[in-house]
Structures are given as C-alpha cells and as structure tokens.
Amino acid sequence: MILSPSFKGSFVQLALAIGLLTAGSLHATLVHGSEAPKLMPTTPSTQAVPVQVGSAPASSTAAFAVVQAVPAVQPSLPEDGVYLYGQSVKPNQIGKTYAVLEVKQGKVVGAFYMPSSSFDCFHGEFQTDKLALTVVDSYERTAHPYAIALEKSYPVAAAGGNPVANSLKLQGFHPISTLSETDQRILTTCKADYQQTLSR
Q1: Given 23, 35, 77, 144, which is the most exposed site by the fewest CB atoms within 10 A?
Q2: What's the rounded Cα separation, in Å, for the pair 190 and 101?
Q3: pLDDT tens digit string along 96-146?
Q4: Cα 36 to Cα 99: distance, rounded to the nearest angstrom
Q5: 101 CB contacts (<8 Å, ≥6 apart)?
Q6: CA pair distance 191, 93, nearest whole angstrom
Q7: Cβ–Cβ < 8 Å for 147, 133
C-alpha cells in the first residue's frame, strides 16, 4: 500500500506520540548505593485498557473503559524504639556496615559503623519513600546528606483487594533483632550529641 505524503506525516506524528508516551511512562530513579539508575514505572491515576465485549456486534469487536488504578500504598512509620540493620543478616561481620538507630515519632538518631572500626553518627527522619539522614564524619566533623530507600512488601491476600504494607525495610540492609553492648554504646554516644533531634 502506498501512503500519501499527508497520511505518512500523520502516521509518523502518531508513532512519535506513542513513543513519547511510552518513554514518558518510565523515569530513572537513582537508588543510593547502586551503580546505575533503576527504571521504575510511574503510576498514573487512571489508565485506558481494552475490554472485550462479548455481546457486541461483529462490527465492534472491542471497547475502551477507564479503570481506576490501585493507589500506591505509603509505608507506615516504624514504631518508636531502637533498631539494628546490617548489610549481613548476621551481626558483627567484618567488612559489613551496620546501622543502629532510635526512632521517635518518625525522627531518627543513630550511627553507621563497621565492626572493629570507627562509627559515624547521623540524624534525620523517615519520609514517604526514604530515610533522609545527615551523617556526621567522626574525624572531620563534617555533615553530609544521605538517603536510604525504603522497601515495602505486601501479603499475598490483601484486605479489601488492596495491597497493605506489612513490613518496612531499608534497601540494602537486613533487620537484626538483637543489639550488642557495642550497639548500645554507639547509640548512647550519638544520642548524647543529637538528642535534641528526637525532641523536636
């Protein structure tokens, strides 16, 4: 079939529009600690999907219906208390980084450390999709912004047909249930410096 110039132009414009829409549905999110950006699909509030109409006449084989997208579930804040996370599921592993922190109404004070090494205190707060921190270098006493993405997991059968977050994790870290004396000592030291952060 030979397309007229005007039709070919319209076809090219349509193809470009579809390509732009497809490209626009993705955005690059750089997760701290990753070497490359991670492409994540955006979630529009509504989307058009084809729906097969079984009783429709032969001339109309399909119709389009607007289906409300399932809203994204925001992670709930962890309960107030002391938490320990590690790059390893086991505590006190040489060469692994650990984070001990105390949470109070979404505010955080704690430290990053490696066993048999120094530690750096931090303070910050939980936000919608990340733990936003200010880390203070223990030697130079300089402050640096740092963020850890939050991971959500969902049960297989969700109440009411909607996903419900049942746990909260720090990306790249594993929760550890038992704190050592070293963890407590490090946390006490950092709280002495940044206790006012939890009191705000």
Answers
A1: 35
A2: 9
A3: 999 999 999 999 999 999 999 999 999 999 998 999 999 999 999 999 999
A4: 23
A5: 82, 83, 84, 85, 108, 109, 110, 111, 122, 187
A6: 24
A7: yes
